From TrEMBL:
Keywords: Membrane, Transmembrane, Transmembrane helix. The chain crosses the membrane at residues 21-50, 56-74, 109-131, 137-161, 168-187, 199-219, 336-359, 379-398, 410-432, 490-507. Pfam families: TctA (PF01970). This is TctA family transporter. It comes from the Bacteria. Residues 20-459 form the DUF112 domain.
C-alpha cells in the first residue's frame, strides 16, 4: 500500500508530461464549461479520442481535471448572464445573478470557486478514505430507495424556491409533465409527441434549461431596454501605492483578497454546514443517477432549513451558493466510487471513464484495487491536484469574465441570444433543439411574469423520468401499493423523512399565513 502510494506520488508529482496534461485540461475545462450549452460531459467526450494515444494515468488525470474545472466554469454564465452552465448551477442561479445586478459579481464567483475547491478536496478525501465502504452502502439501495431519494430531491426544489409553496409546486408539476414527453421508459409508449420523431427521446434538457433561464432573461431585459438597466460597476480602488511593493499590492494582493476574503471567512465560520454539504455531495454522488445535480439541490434545501436568514435564499444568499457548490463538487469524486468498485457509472462522465478503462484493457471492479493499486492512488492524487489547479485557473477566469457585465445591453443581449442558439444546436446538431430552446424561453418568460419559480421546473424535467421508472418497477409484481415502498429499512427511513419534510413545509406555510393575518388585523385595529 505505502509502496503503491509513493510510486503514484512520484508518477503524478514529478512527471512534467502529466503536469502539462493537467494544466491544459484545466484551461480546456474552464473554456468549454463557461460556454452555455457545452457541458462537462461534452468536454470529456471530445477528449476521449485523444486518450487513445495516452497512458491510463495521464488520461484519467486529464478527465478528472477538466471535469472539476468545467463544473465551476458553469457558474460563470450562471452569475454573469443568468444562464446555468450546468444543471447543478440552476439551483442557485437567482442567488448568484442577484449579486451581479448589484455590481458585486465577484462575490458569488469567489464563493463558487472557494466552495468548488473545498468541496472537491473534501470529496477526494472521502474517496480515498471511504470509497469501498460507501460503495457497499450504495449497493444496498433498491428501486424503492431511489424512488424516495428522487422524491426528496424534487421536494427540495419546492422548499428552496422563493415565494408561495403552491406556485413552487405548480412549477414542479409543469416540469414533471414535460418529463413525460417521449417514449415511456417502462412501457415504450409514445406520449405527447404529436407524431414528431424528434420528441421520442423526450425534451432535450440542455436546450430546455438554456431557454428557461437564458432566453427568458433576454426577453425580460428587452421588455425594459429603454429603462436604465445598466449594472453598476464596482468602485475602483483609487488608493495610490508607490514602488514595487505598491504595484504588487494594487495588482496582485488586493484583487486576490477581494475574491477570496468573504468566502474563506464565511466557510470558516460555518464548518458544520461545510461538513454537511460535503457529505451530502459525496453520498449522492456515489448513487448511480443522482450525482452533482441532486446533491446541489438537496444541499441547498438543507442549507435553507438550517440558516438564520432563510429569507435571503433566492434573492442573493452566499450561504446557499457556498453549500450548493461544495456539494456539487464533492459529488464529482463520489461518482467514481461505483465506477471503480462495481463498474457501474455514477453519471455520464464516469460512464465515459469506464469506456476509457476498458479501452486500456483495465476492467473496473473490486479487483482493480488489488491488481492496479498505483492507478487507483494516481486517480486519488489527480483529484487533489485538479482542485488545486482549479484554484489558479478559476481565479484568472473570474478576473477576466467580469468584463462581460461592462458590455452595453444593446450589444450583450444579441450575443447572449447567439450563445443560446449555438449552445442548443451544439448538443445534437439539431435545429429542433433550437426550437425547443425558443419555446422553453417563452414558457420561462411567462412563468416568471406570473412569479412561478423556474428551479422546480428544471428539477422536474431532470428527475421526472427516473422517478416514474422507479415507481413502476417498485409496484410491478408486488402485493399492495404502499407496502413495497416501506418494506426495507432504508426505504422506510427515506419515506418517513419525505413525509416529515412535507409535514414541516405545510406547517411552516400555515404558520406564516396566520402570522401575516395577525399582522394585518393588528395594523387595521
Amino acid at each position: 500500500m505505502i509502496e503503491a502510494l509513493l510510486e503514484a506520488l512520484q508518477l503524478i508529482v514529478f512527471s512534467p508530461s502529466i503536469w502539462m496534461v493537467i494544466i491544459l485540461s484545466a484551461i480546456y475545462g474552464i473554456f468549454l464549461g463557461a460556454i452555455p450549452g457545452l457541458t462537462a460531459t461534452m468536454a470529456v467526450a471530445l477528449f476521449v479520442p485523444i486518450t487513445y494515444w495516452m497512458d491510463p494515468v495521464p488520461a484519467l488525470a486529464g478527465i478528472a481535471t477538466m471535469t472539476a474545472c468545467a463544473i465551476f466554469a458553469g457558474d460563470i454564465p450562471t452569475t454573469l448572464l443568468r444562464i446555468p452552465g450546468t444543471p447543478a448551477s440552476a439551483a442557485y442561479v437567482d442567488d448568484a445573478y442577484a449579486f451581479t445586478r448589484k455590481g458585486q459579481s465577484e462575490k458569488p464567483l469567489g464563493m463558487a470557486l472557494t466552495g468548488s475547491v473545498m468541496g472537491g478536496l473534501f470529496g477526494a478525501v472521502i474517496l480515498i478514505l471511504l470509497g469501498g465502504q460507501l460503495a457497499r452502502v450504495a449497493s444496498m439501495f433498491s428501486v424503492a430507495e431511489y424512488f424516495w431519494l428522487y422524491l426528496l430531491g424534487l421536494s427540495s426544489a419546492v422548499v428552496v424556491a422563493r415565494g408561495p409553496v403552491l406556485k413552487s409546486l405548480l412549477g414542479l408539476l409543469i416540469g414533471l409533465f414535460l418529463a413525460l414527453v417521449g417514449l415511456s421508459a417502462v412501457h415504450t409508449e409514445a406520449r405527447f409527441t404529436f407524431g414528431l420523431p424528434q420528441l421520442y427521446q423526450g425534451i432535450s434538457f440542455i436546450p430546455a434549461m438554456i431557454g428557461l433561464f437564458g432566453l427568458s432573461e433576454v426577453l425580460r431585459n428587452v421588455m425594459n431596454i429603454r429603462k436604465d438597466r445598466s449594472i453598476p460597476d464596482p468602485a475602483a480602488d483609487t488608493r495610490e501605492e508607490t514602488g514595487a511593493g505598491g504595484w504588487l499590492k494594487r495588482n496582485i494582493w488586493r484583487p486576490f483578497v477581494s475574491v477570496f476574503r468573504s468566502p474563506v471567512k464565511l466557510i470558516s465560520g460555518r464548518k458544520g454546514d461545510f461538513l454537511r454539504s460535503g457529505l451530502i455531495g459525496s453520498v449522492t454522488g456515489m448513487l448511480p443517477g443522482a450525482g452533482a445535480d441532486m446533491g446541489s439541490w438537496i444541499s441547498l434545501a438543507a442549507s435553507k432549513r438550517s440558516s438564520k436568514h432563510p429569507e435571503e435564499y433566492g434573492k442573493g444568499s452566499l450561504e446557499g451558493i457556498a453549500d450548493a457548490t461544495t456539494a456539487n463538487s464533492s459529488a464529482l469524486a463520489g461518482t467514481w466510487i461505483p465506477a471503480l468498485v462495481f463498474g457501474i457509472p455514477g453519471d455520464s462522465i464516469t460512464a465515459i471513464v469506464i469506456g476509457v478503462l476498458l479501452m486500456k484493457n483495465l476492467n473496473p471492479g473490486p479487483e482493480i484495487f488489488a491488481s492496479q493499486p498505483v492507478l487507483v492512488y494516481s486517480i486519488y492524487l489527480s483529484f487533489i491536484i485538479a482542485n488545486l489547479a482549479l484554484l489558479v485557473v478559476g481565479y484568472v477566469a473570474i478576473k477576466t469574465g467580469r468584463f462581460v457585465i461592462k458590455i452595453p445591453q444593446k450589444i450583450l443581449l444579441p450575443v447572449i441570444l447567439l450563445f443560446c442558439i449555438i449552445g442548443s444546436f451544439a448538443i445534437q446538431g439539431s435545429y429542433f433543439d433550437v426550437g425547443i430552446m425558443l419555446g422553453m424561453g417563452l414558457l420561462g418568460f411567462v412563468l416568471e411574469r406570473r412569479k412561478i419559480p423556474l428551479g422546480p421546473v428544471v428539477l422536474g424535467i431532470i428527475l421526472g423520468g427516473p422517478l416514474e421508472e422507479r415507481f413502476i418497477q417498485t409496484v410491478t409484481g408486488s402485493e399492495g401499493i404502499l407496502w413495497p415502498f416501506f418494506n426495507r429499512p432504508i426505504a422506510a427511513l427515506l419515506g418517513v423523512g419525505f413525509l416529515l419534510l412535507w409535514g414541516w413545509t405545510i406547517w411552516r406555510n400555515r404558520k406564516d399565513k396566520s402570522e401575516a393575518t395577525d399582522e394585518d388585523v393588528s395594523m387595521q385595529s
